[in-house]
């Protein structure tokens, strides 16, 4: 289970990722990606290579969500809400869930006004899996610190 510091790091990483995708309007190159990683580390978040890989997956899937949603009003709010809800779900389930849990989660998103079409559902599944990877990486790296 994540302690308070790990949870804060997890939440900050997801917020920084959403902000980056929105700020870049869903487009960036490798140099911009490296700059983002540097920005994250300057904010005091130590990144392992696994974390970098999962952050990359989160960014790429959020990019797909962003680009598929450009016609939606308030895309920034939708992305922030999706990231926040995803973080809460992954923390609540400790990164382990079944199909039923996922269906309940999607129903809760719809109740909050986030309606995802079929393409968006696919992208969102990618976001969930990538966020789960970040969660596991943070948990794993903090476990090493305690040894």
Q: Number of domains in the coordinates?
A: 1
Catalogue the unreliable spans. Answer: none
Query: Helical amount among residues, as a percent range?
Result: over 70%
Helix/strand order, N-terminal first: HHHHHH
The chain-level structural class is mainly alpha
**Assembly annotation:** single chain
> Helix count, per DSSP?
6
Main sheet specs: none
Q: What's the gyration radius in Å?
A: 15 Å
How widely separated are the two ends? 15 Å
Average pLDDT figure? 81
The coarse overall form would be globular
Q: Beta-strand level of the residues, as a percent range?
A: under 5%
**Number of E-type strands:** 0
How would you briefly describe this protein structure?
The chain is mostly helical. The protein is built from 6 helices and no strands.
